[in-house]
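Hi all, posting the design record for the shared folder.

TITLE: backbone redesign
STEP: 1 of 1
STRUCTURE INPUT:
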């Protein structure tokens, strides 16, 4: 089985470090706590009496020090330049200063490279505050671990007491609140939940319950979709025979991650045409009436479709689509919202832009040519005709980030349609 990259993010004191170590041990994976990198740098800077406002010196120090995280005697230990500093970096003094160093953009860039290098081959659990959003945005499994402010402060007090430090709860509560604010508002890698991360509140959970919840998600096997695979193979052969189907740009489709294939719509043949042309299994919306008949409805569901109402906004269908995308799967969307009676491109609907913006999915524009001649708008019989399906270059939403949500929905959909028009002219 492929070794995964797992990210665990969350605020200070949520229990993510303990959880990440246990998950790594249960899976036989490597472990990396990003916070230890900043603690090690803070410890070394304090030891050398470096001014913590001297960013240039701190960035240079971050590039020079050698940090290793190893499992020794069943425990994860951190080594700085060959010395075990696991206990030395967990003092109140380091606690107090580490957030300041964590704000320095140059330091974060140095450690980002270090973390990505460690995670390159998979088989690792990486824990921090911006891992799923900045450091490893394409990780296989993402989790956001949280707990109430009071619970996190209590845990920190208990940890400090066990190490021989007596710190008032009121002080720890204030520092935890300030740390949260610093983490969430810093310019470089702020703390936030990744769109596709699974949130787990640990306030009332035991450690073993936390571990069980995370492992359940990681070990959950995707359905084999045997029927889809069989029909995909048969459909590809059948469409080649009937329509001499020609597919271009299949290499533009990313093999993993949330994906929207946004296509024009000419015929009822279009969903299976794009489905057999895509290397990834596609979900798509089908009108409610399709599901009224048991056999057809059940088969359609098994092939990745789910119902949508013809008129008005369908909130449930939108939620379903977002769940699919946030689960890092792929969707087919007909950007015009309906079939074109004449075969000409229609005006785009904002739905594709909305789903892309809210899920942060990659968008692949797609152009279908000829399916309206094989099965006309009001036709009842299929005719053998040449059909082409083309997949364009990926489009991401970053370029639209300066716009407000309602503006960005239409802007993204308009850009997709412009790409489809360009493909039509080629």
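Okay, here is what came back for every position:
SEQUENCE:
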């Amino acid at each position: 089985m492929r070794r995964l990259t797992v990210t665990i993010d969350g605020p200070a004191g949520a229990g993510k470090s303990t959880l990440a170590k246990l998950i790594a041990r249960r899976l036989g994976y490597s472990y990396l706590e990003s916070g230890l990198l900043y603690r090690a740098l803070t410890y070394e800077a304090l030891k050398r009496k470096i001014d913590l406002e001297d960013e240039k010196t701190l960035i240079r120090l971050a590039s020079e020090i050698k940090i290793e995280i190893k499992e020794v005697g069943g425990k994860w230990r951190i080594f700085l330049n060959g010395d075990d500093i696991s206990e030395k970096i967990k003092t109140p003094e380091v606690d107090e200063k580490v957030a300041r160093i964590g704000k320095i953009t140059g330091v974060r860039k140095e450690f980002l490279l270090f973390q990505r290098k460690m995670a390159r081959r998979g088989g690792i659990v990486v824990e921090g505050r911006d891992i799923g959003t900045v450091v490893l945005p394409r990780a296989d499994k993402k989790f956001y671990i949280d707990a109430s402010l009071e619970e996190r402060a209590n845990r920190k007090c208990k940890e400090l007491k066990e190490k021989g430090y007596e710190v008032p709860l009121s002080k720890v509560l204030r520092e935890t609140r300030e740390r949260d604010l610093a983490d969430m508002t810093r310019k470089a890698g702020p703390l936030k939940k990744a769109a596709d991360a699974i949130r787990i509140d640990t306030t009332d959970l035991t450690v073993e319950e936390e571990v069980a919840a995370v492992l359940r998600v990681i070990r959950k096997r995707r359905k084999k979709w045997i029927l889809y695979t069989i029909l995909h193979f048969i459909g590809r052969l059948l469409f080649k025979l009937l329509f001499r189907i020609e597919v271009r740009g299949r290499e533009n489709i990313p093999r993993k991650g949330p994906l929207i294939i946004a296509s024009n719509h000419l015929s009822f043949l279009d969903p299976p045409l794009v489905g057999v042309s895509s290397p990834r299994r596609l979900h798509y919306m089908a009108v409610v009436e399709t599901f009224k008949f048991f056999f057809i409805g059940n088969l359609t569901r098994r092939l990745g479709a789910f119902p949508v109402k013809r008129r008005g906004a369908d909130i449930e269908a939108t939620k379903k689509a977002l769940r699919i995308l946030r689960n890092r799967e792929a969707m087919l969307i007909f950007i015009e919202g309906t079939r074109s009676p004449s075969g000409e491109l229609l005006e785009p609907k904002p739905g594709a832009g909305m789903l892309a913006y809210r899920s942060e999915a990659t968008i692949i524009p797609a152009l279908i040519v000829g399916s309206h001649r094989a099965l006309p708008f009001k036709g009842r019989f299929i005719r053998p005709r040449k059909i082409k399906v083309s997949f364009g270059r990926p489009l991401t939403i970053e370029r639209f980030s300066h716009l407000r949500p309602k503006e960005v929905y239409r802007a993204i959909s308009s850009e997709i349609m412009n790409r489809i028009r360009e493909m039509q002219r080629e």
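COMMENT: The chain has a mean pLDDT of 87.
Let me know if anyone wants the other runs.
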